[in-house]
Amino acid sequence: MTIKMVVCDLDNTLLNEEGRVSKENLAAIHSLMTQGGHFVAASGRTINQMEQVLVNLGTINRENCYSITMNGGVVIENKKNRKLAHSYFTYRELYQLFAFAQREGVCLHFQTDELIYLFHPSAAELKYLDTQQLDYVVIEEDQLTYLKNEKVGKVLYQHDDIDYLKDLSVILKDYCEGDLTISYSANRYMEINCGRDISKAQGIKLLAGHLKISLTEVLAIGDNYNDLEMVELAGFSACPSNAIAELRQHCDYISKKSCNQHAVADILSHYRQINQLK
Question: How does strand 74-77 pair with strand 82-86?
Answer without folding.
Answer: antiparallel
